Amino acid sequence: MIVRHNYRVRLKTLMLFCCLLATSASVFPSELLSPPPIAFVGRWTSSAPHPTAGEVTIVVSIAQTMRFSGSATVDGRPYWTYGGTVRIDGQKLVWHYDVSSIALPEASRTDVDDILSVDAERIVLRSQRSGGALRTFLRVR
């Protein structure tokens, strides 16, 4: 009888564990996990109107080594070229600019974006520096 009782307790514990595991997605959402670095590798572009300057287009390439290089144009005219390293820190992309055609103060050499979503075709980021501005990058084929 005692063995049977212990078995029932173990079965109840196992069932409770399974219920907790099944509901853990709401307690520990997948958004807390870092996306894999390979998801960011490739060539990406984003265009958005600037309130005073015109259409701003950004093209950035990220290598498997997590080095990046890119350029920005305003209404089709070159504005900025840059490069450096990028790392994933939880749900954030941390960019460090080693090279810039525009002089950057030391405090501006590191930039952080919140990763809102990433898949094979699109990356959506929220800038921590630009007042929470959203930017969507599309993969260049």
Gist?
It contains one helix and eight strands, in the order αββββββββ. The protein has 141 residues and is of the alpha+beta class.
Tell me what you see in this structure:
With 141 residues, the protein is of the alpha+beta class. Helix content is 18%, strand content 49%. The chain is built from 1 helix and 8 strands. Strand 7 (122-127) and strand 8 form a beta hairpin. It is globular. The N and C termini lie far apart (68 Å). Residues 13-31 have low confidence and may be disordered.
Please provide the ordered H/E string of secondary-structure elements: HEEEEEEEE
The Cα radius of gyration reads 22 Å
Shape: globular
Task: Give the end-to-end Cα distance, rounded to a whole number of Å.
Answer: 68 Å
The level of helicity is 10-25%
Largest sheet: 8 strands, antiparallel, barrel
| DSSP helical segment count | 1
> From the helix content, strand content and strand pairing, which structural class follows?
alpha+beta
Mean residue pLDDT:
84
In terms of DSSP E residues, the strand content is over 45%
What strand line-up does the widest sheet have? 1-2-3-4-5-6-7-8
Number of strands: 8
Q: Segments where pLDDT lies below 50 for 5+ residues? A: 13-31
